[in-house]
Amino acid sequence: MGDGLAIVGLTKSFGGLQVARDLTLTLPQGSRTALIGPNGAGKTTFANLLTGVLKPTSGKIMLDGQDIGSLNEAARVRAGIAKTFQITNLFRDLSVRENLRLPILEREGCTHHIFRRADGWRDIEAEITELMLELNIQSLADKPVRDLAYGQQRLVELALTLAVKPKVLILDEPAAGVPSTESHLIVEAIKRLPSDLSVLIIEHDMQLVFEVANRIIVLVNGAILMEGTPDEVVTNDRVRELYLGAAHV
Fold this sequence. Notes:
Layout: E1 5-14, E2 17-27, E3 32-36, H1 43-51, E4 58-63, E5 66-67, H2 73-79, E6 81-83, H3 96-107, H4 122-134, H5 150-162, E7 168-172, H6 183-191, E8 198-202, H7 206-212, E9 215-220, E10 223-228, H8 230-234, H9 237-244
Parallel strand pairs: 3-8, 3-9, 6-7, 7-8
Antiparallel strand pairs: 1-2, 1-4, 4-5, 9-10
Domain ABC transporter: 5-246
Keywords: ATP-binding, Nucleotide-binding, Transport
Family: Belongs to the ABC transporter superfamily.
């Protein structure tokens, strides 16, 4: 069992502008944590610090007890931190199955076997099937990505990210651009994620947040305003005033 992710005193400044202020929090293994806050709160900056896109001014990022703060973006993916859209874009002319095969072949070092059919590895084909079952997209296996609804494409992107076997999965606005008629697909997919995977959801859709998160962190001006259960967050006067609005008052 891993220890999960621990962030200690994480700070980021651009000149005199501090965009992350002494962030300290944990994402235990298997946790479902949402990061919310008004526009400009620093949510994207925080995600970029975790994935290695940005280097912190100070502070530590620990994964399973190991300091990963010096690792670059690619090395952090290998260490176990993955973000949707970070891994790869979809190949629209390929089928769902073919899209999923590519990152697994790359991960297993099989991409250079030019004289062997790409679908000739039985274990890899079994893993592709398992991934599709996990996200309930097996009926789409042989459809070209270009023919899928947008919500279905987001599920394939999620499957691609899971194919690198992350320990921590960052979902950056997973429902963005998904029509309301398809948003249930995203909610169901998040609920089906492996129970030992730590998931951080950065999302504006509060209905989705309250459906899938068991813990919420509220970020304001680069600092943590509060963290707690959904019930604790929704009843906090400061949070309602700053972010949730009249619909939750």
